[in-house]
């Protein structure tokens, strides 16, 4: 049967303690044991189904984790307090002093800063490369390389990683392929294409209401247990634990994820087509002009579309700022970082979410000043939105 992430989520059911249609929320930080022996066994990791302390795991976090594992087709998952809490614990779990990471150079600014400025303190070094060129990726692998790291659709340039090709390299050199799938939930299923570990910032599309931060690591039981190990597990020891109340609310939001993603994709595809036809420099993986359009088509779960993210280059930072302020003024969206909200969000990544990346490197990777990143909202009438956006563009003379 064909892999369908939304149906996998839908088929998972957990009832509440009293037959509630939603699972009960575990509102406790610690758990009692009937016998001292079971407490000891739980510490040793030998008492399945027993809860110990909520930094380790909670029923609510496990419910959410299982739904996310079902979505990604992995054995299990561990939810975290933020996307960075997921990514940093994965990388610190997989790498020790002296190890090396080969990473895409177009990644989330926080991840870039972590690899560039933070992990060298622990003797972990990273080569940032053009992930779309497998020959360069292979040439960057050294005897010390442990991890290949990328985003399935990159932030903010919307480059698409060839996950199957990267997975073949990872197998050849005995590396772990870690993929951040935040930009393309449901649409791309990296584990099904060979990724070993899949991370998300739940803050974005998956929760979808811009009211919390959250993250998840999806992987094998063995790896997730390693992360939670009381003696040397990065999630357990670094402590980026999600709160149970929040896990319960993210799970409820996930119930509508497939409908939201379809609407985000439909709206973004419509606008991308129009903007491109108007002569704007538009990047959207669903456009035939996108260099990875056919690769995305090979990888995607078709019914969820090419996602809600697009970029438009309006030439200069000043024009970008003028346009964004005007669009906000006319209630077309918000001048804000982040993504996956019901409302359209826009920002200029060069001076915001990717400002951690030095200007010279921004230029090298094609991140220009006038680039506006859009997370297209759930607008009911996207044609009306388009007309209003076009008017804004005309009013600031970018069209
Ligand atoms: C936002 C984001 C992150 C970080 O997630 P937080 O929840 O803010 O910690 C990581 N990767 C990508 C692609 C993101 O967009």
UniProtKB/TrEMBL annotation:
The keyword Protein biosynthesis does not apply. It comes from the Bacteria. Its cofactor is pyridoxal 5'-phosphate. The modification N6-(pyridoxal phosphate)lysine is found at residue 204. InterPro entries: Cys/Met-Metab_PyrdxlP-dep_enz (IPR000277), PyrdxlP-dep_Trfase (IPR015424), PyrdxlP-dep_Trfase_major (IPR015421), PyrdxlP-dep_Trfase_small (IPR015422). GO terms for biological process: transsulfuration. GO terms for cellular component: cytoplasm. Keywords: Lyase, Pyridoxal phosphate. GO terms for molecular function: carbon-sulfur lyase activity; pyridoxal phosphate binding. Belongs to the trans-sulfuration enzymes family. PANTHER family: CYSTATHIONINE GAMMA-LYASE (PTHR11808:SF80), TRANS-SULFURATION ENZYME FAMILY MEMBER (PTHR11808). This is Cystathionine beta-lyase.
